[in-house]
Structure prediction request, 394 residues.
Amino acid sequence: MTALKGIKVLELGTLIAGPFCARMLGEFGADVIKIETPDGGDPLRSWRVLKDGTSLWWAVQARNKKSVTLNMKHAEGRALARRLALEADIIVENYRPGVLEKWGLGYEQLKADKPSTIMVRLSGFGQTGPMRDQPGFGAVGESMGGLRYVSGHPDRPPVRVGISIGDSVAALHGVIGALMALRHRDVTGQGQMVDVALYESVFNLMESLVPEFDYAGVVRERTGGALPGIVPSNTYTTRDGQNIVIAGNGDAIFKRLMTAIGRYDMAEDPALARNDGRVPRTADIDGAIQAWCATHDIDSALAVLTAADVPASKIYSVRDMLQDPQFLARGMFEQAAFADGTPIKLPAVTPKLSATPGGTAWIGPALGAHTDEVLASLGLSAEEIAALRADGAI
Prediction:
């Protein structure tokens, strides 16, 4: 038994936000049909590191999905997509607003025939507003949503996180919205549209930015490796040149940290007993911690901090992850294989459900691998499918 067994999902979209949303639904048992163009499919198939011309990312992003090729410029292709949409419990799409409406697949158009339709729409700026028609990739969402402004060092331009975090955060909002809409449908029989904007999804993560500015006129700025206003929480460098994150910002933790590094004066200073007292002394506290780290290798520093029950970590590369006892104990990697038998390690599915865990049934499929199977499930004969293929509809 899987959590979403029996739920049908139609994915209309490419690259990251929409496909990641549908991917998570598929990882927990939903039957996901991914529509791709016959002439190459999702551009993600050719992104980053490739094996035999196909992205290794594809193995993860399209796992558990059925690839169906439909030519959406062809009337028959659009008609088949509509039939699949009306059979689906959830439709996930990330085209620019208005594209689906041109194809007769907009939310209101489908809802008229099927009131229980749930459509998750992921776009740069949402389905309304003056920017709705503008292209909005994750980088734009991260910038407009506030994340880029606070990322990096104060004396340098803003930096990006090394992954497509804006798209992925939007995808997670899409999953949350889809599950809430399913709950509402199960109670009322009515579907709804889940309108996810990339910039709004990033904005939703921005903690106290708005009330701090509205009430106190404070604009949160870039602070490098530190967490502003929460002290100490920063990145330090050990004797062997490794980077270590130490989060000693809890009041009791701070005292344990200062004791562990031999700064009893700070540990016992009543002025530093609370965070609001530590903030004005940020530079002194960080200096003391850095001075201690500079006398220890990463392993010995972590041993001392772990013994003192202080949250700390080396900053992991993927190489570190693959040999780390915690990752291994939690089963954070799955072993899979390509069609030619070549083994490939994938990240395991999260979150971990005790009764209905997710998993990988198959890795990202070849383009159109499930076209005949899915169209046959609509009642089309082999001859009809062959005729559609010859006509360029699939």
Remarks:
- The longest helix spans residues 165-188.
- The chain has two domains: 8-204+332-390, 233-314.
- The chain has 18 helices and 13 strands.
- Residues 91 and 119 are 5 Å apart (CA to CA).
